[in-house]
């Protein structure tokens, strides 16, 4: 009897400007077996985009029905359109043995924790608020007031760190990726994840 492990949902989250997208992309470049959590949206499909690759595209009515039926792990409205994470897609990938990564803002991560507490929550932290400020400024897209607003929001989000299972400091991208990879390996070796499957081995040997 072969032991087949289910996949795990990993939630990578942290303040705006901390480098979530950069770390996630570098992680996927190193590990092609990981699945990216595809979001659902009510905004119109754009030229070059593909259904089920870029997003799952739904009408406003269909999306709101999914909210009512608790079929989304999290959702938010942005510039008049809904965005969210479909439960069915995540559960389907996990059942197939794939690890799914969801890169999301802190408030969204807290919604996921409420709806899918068995996920593994990783908080990506800046080395310091000064470094976070430098990263936001280096984008060259924010006014001084917006930078200060983002830093205040980051302080508030760092205080929510206790809701997470792990904290990874993004001092260097490669170092952060190595730590995330270590978390993935560690989670797959956790006794509570594999115990029930190995007990099945004992039942087979005794029958």
TrEMBL record:
A GO cellular component annotation in the UniProt record: cytosol
Residue ranges of domain Guanylate kinase-like in the record: 7-185
Predominant location category: cytoplasm
Family note: Belongs to the guanylate kinase family.
Protein name per Swiss-Prot or TrEMBL: Guanylate kinase
Pfam family, one: Guanylate_kin
Keyword list, A-Z: ATP-binding, Cytoplasm, Kinase, Nucleotide-binding, Transferase
Binding site for ATP: 14-21
Function: Essential for recycling GMP and indirectly, cGMP.
Catalytic reactions on record: GMP + ATP = GDP + ADP
SUPFAM superfamilies: P-loop containing nucleoside triphosphate hydrolases (SSF52540)
Gene name per UniProt: gmk
Species of the source: Streptohalobacillus salinus
GO MF annotation list: ATP binding; GMP kinase activity
NCBIfam families for this protein: guanyl_kin
EC number of the protein: 2.7.4.8
Location within or outside the cell: Cytoplasm
